[in-house]
Structure formats: structure tokens, C-alpha cells
Amino acid sequence: MGVEGCTKCIKYMLFFFNFIFWLAGGVILGVALWLRHDPTTSNLLELELDGAHAPNTFYISVHILIAVGAVMMVVGFLGCYGAIQESQCLLGTFFACLVILFACEVAAGIWGFMHKETVSKEMTNFYDSAYDKAMTQSITDQTKRKAAATVLKVFHESLNCCGKGLGTSIITKLTDSLGMTDICPSGVQQVDCHTRIRDLFSDKIYLIGIAALVVAVIMIFEMIFSMVLCCGIRNSPVY
Question: How many CB atoms sit inside 10 A of residue 4's CB?
């Protein structure tokens, strides 16, 4: 069985798009692994204070992204092989996998849009808790103060910031200079950590969103081409 004419052209276009899809899966897998092991986010998300861990919502999203990238590579290979072999069974399986992936991506996109501020808010609340404990307990409880100060120093050194706002940044630098605390890194600019945290996770979320949009467009073309090719194979003459 062999396809001819426009259907043959679609066959090679589907192979090309599947190859791009396979590469996109590898890129997403690589980006997800980078996000998981990025020193800046890892230092912040592995913090612990008084038994409370830093919010893990971001890591949950990254682990899902790792799984999606791996599945995309498998499905992309399946599509390439099905297109070259002109197998209706493989192309039908490929189309079904694409529909499931596309539905999951749309659902994940809606969830991500609705909770796009959640990660930065959770991390900001965790920072505020550590900051308040480090400042209010600087005299009453030295043990808790040191634990909170250690967490804050990781924030400040990783993000090159200090304080919850301009006012608290100035106050913290003043208490550091008087020897009451040792929190802000030396030479840091007057940038509050709320802004740094929001920018850090917003940039990464936008990166994920752009990658998801590109993949969604490729998937739509692949679903169309796979169905056209499948119909062409069914209607092609047997030699």
C-alpha cells in the first residue's frame, strides 16, 4: 500500500511536524529539569523553618512538565514511525494520544492561568513569616532568631534583595549596622524581596506558557495531518 500525490506530501509533512514535536518534547523535558535543579529556585524551595517547608506548588508543576516532555518524545516517535510505515493503527493510536495530550494541556493551561500568582504569593508569605520571626524575636528568642535569619540570608543572597519593602529594607540595614541582626548581604541595592520573588517565578511561568502555546499549535496541525493521511492510506490502491 502506498500513498501518492497530495497525500504523500502530507505524509512527509506529518513526519516533519512529528520530528519537531519530538524535539519540542526534548526541549520541554530539558527546561523542566533545568527549572527543577536551577540553583536559585532550589535554594529557596528547599528551605525549612520551624518544621514548615517552602511551598512546593512550583515543584509539582515542574514534575508534571517533566512527565509531559517524556510522553511527548514517546508520542512523537510513534507518529514518525506510523507516518513512514503508513500504518493506520499507529496513526490512529497517535491521534488518540494527541487528543488526550491536547486536552490535558488545555486543562493545565486553564489551571495555570487561574493560579498564576499562587506560587509567588505562597513564597512571599513564607518569606514574610521568616522575616517577622527574625526581627521580632531578635531579643526574646535567640535560637529561633538564628534559624529565621539563616532562611532570610538564603533569600537575600539568592535574589540580591533585602526586606519586604523599601522601608523594611532600610530598617534591616540599620539593625545590621548596629549589630542587632545579620541578615542583608553587604552591598545589596535597595530592592525589596517581594518584587524579586514575583519577578523570579513570573519569568519562569511565562517561559512555560510560551512553550505550551507553541506545542499546542504543532499538535493541532499534527491531528489534522494524521487524520488526512489515515484516510488517504485507507483509500489508496493496493499493489
Answer: 11
DSSP H/E element including 68: helix 57-85
**Lookup result for grid cell 524551595:** 45
Give per-residue burial for 208-235: e unless 16+ CB within 10 Å, then b.
beebbeebeebbeebeebbebbbebbee
Say which CATH architecture domain 119-194 belongs to.
Orthogonal Bundle (1.10)
**42, 45, 46, 50: CA torsion to nearest 10:** 160
Domain positions in the chain are: 5-116+203-235, 119-194
Half-sphere exposure of 204 (CA within 13 A, CB side): 22
Task: Report the length, in residues, of the chain.
Answer: 239
Terminal CA-to-CA distance of the chain, rounded, Å? 6
Please report the pLDDT score of residue 12 as a whole number: 83
Quote the cell numbers at residue 204. 519562569
Q: What cell does 91 get? A: 496513526
- Average pLDDT over the chain reads 76
Amino acid identity at 207 = L
Please report the pLDDT score of residue 27 as a whole number: 83
For the entire predicted model, the pTM comes to 0.65
